Amino acid sequence: MTPRKAPLLGGIDLGGTKIQTAVVDAKGKVAGEARRPTPTSGGPGDVAEEMAAAMREAVEAAGVETADLGGVGVGSPGDADEKTGVVSAAKNLPGWEGSFPLAESLRKELGTDVRVGNDVQVATEAEFQLGAGREFSTLIGVFWGTGVGGGLIIDGKPWVGRGAAGEIGHMVVKRGGAKCPCGRKGCMEAYAGRSAMEAEARRQHEEGHKTDLFKLMHKHDKPRLTSGIWERALDHGDHLAEKLIDRAIEALGTGVASAVNLLDPEAVVLGGGLGVRFGERLMEPLTKEMGKHLFVDERPPAVRVASLGDLGGAIGASLLFAR
Ligand SMILES: [Zn+2]
After folding, report:
1. Which of 41, 133, 239, 285 is the most exposed place for a label (fewest CB within 10 A)?
2. C-alpha of residue 122 to centroid of ligand 1, in Å
3. Distance CA 55, CA 108 (A)
């Protein structure tokens, strides 16, 4: 008989548009993965069923069974309670304004233990343990995508506060400023979040400002202004795209520097769809904007682009069983 190995772990990254699953070994190596679109109608129960189906596909790809897994971790949007496994107010998911016992529901479906955590926090933990943040013990994860999410590692440990820490996108960068998707005013996300940027681009386009952003969106058959569309527009020298990206960088620099002033971390890891696509290209203007607001400016934190890519969220979720 071969010696018993550490069990494989499952990870599920529950996003507004897709459900990404992975089967991961003790070293974070992916043994199988699957992806399904997130249901756009129905309710939490339908989403949970689709998550279970995507997890089963990944398990099959890895050549094992769900009952063999040491557990399945879920990185969830909304308010994910690690202690109870209940997810509340996941407003970008269908019919999920209230609370739903996600861990319990998946446990029944999959026949293995399930834990839930905040999606951005677990992605930050993945970068800390296996990715761009490995060499640091205190860092801030900044996930620049549809919104702007944040995660914290302090002294080598995740910091979730009372469950809602790390909401860096809702740090105020301008009092009484632009309306944020959260309903408040002047948040960093109101300037830097992909969906806020798209709303602003649309408004200015309708006012008569010239831009190819929406032409490119239709040409490439995209339902929204994806990070790839923004990149193409920048490559074409599209003025409105340049203006809105500059505005986003200014807000990111201001918000991230404020967070750095509070925590004095060794590093900032920049992830998310826009963060990964533009991290290297816009690193210089970003660190310059940050520098303007750093109180101790002679030793700024390292700024690194997240390195685990699309699977970082699912890998991080599996680590909920390795903490
Ligand atoms: Zn906000």
Report:
1. 41
2. 21
3. 13
Instruction: Give the CA diameter of the chain.
Output: 73
Distance from chain centroid for Cα 88: 18
Task: Report residue 158 as tokens.
Answer: 């995740």
Angle at 76 between CA 74 and CA 82, to 5 degrees: 70
Residue 170 contacts residue 188 (beta carbons within 8 Å): yes
pLDDT tens digits, 19-43? 999 999 988 899 999 999 999 999 9
> How far is ligand 1, taken at its centre, from the CA of residue 3, in Å?
51
Distance 149 CA to ligand 1 centre (A): 11
Confirm if 104 and 148 have CB atoms less than 8 A apart: no
Give pTM, 2 decimals.
Answer: 0.92
Nearest 5°: phi and psi at 88?
Answer: -120, 155
C-alpha–C-alpha distance, residues 76 and 87, integer Å: 8
Two tokens, residue 20:
């990404």
Give the distance (Å) from ligand 1 centre to CA of residue 189: 6
Residue showing tokens 């107010």: 89
- How many CB atoms lie under 10 A from the CB of residue 84? 14
- C-alpha 182 to ligand 1 mean position (Å): 4
At which residue do the structure tokens 């998707």 appear?
181
Query: What H or E segment, with its residue span, contains residue 125?
Result: helix 119-130
For the chain, strand residue ranges (E) read: 9-14, 18-24, 30-37, 72-76, 79-80, 87-88, 99-100, 114-118, 139-144, 148-154, 157-158, 267-271, 302-305
pLDDT-derived band at 132, boundaries 50, 70, 90: very high
DSSP structural state of residue 322:
T
- Gyration radius (Cα) of the chain, Å: 20
- The label of the residue with tokens 């043994």 reads 31
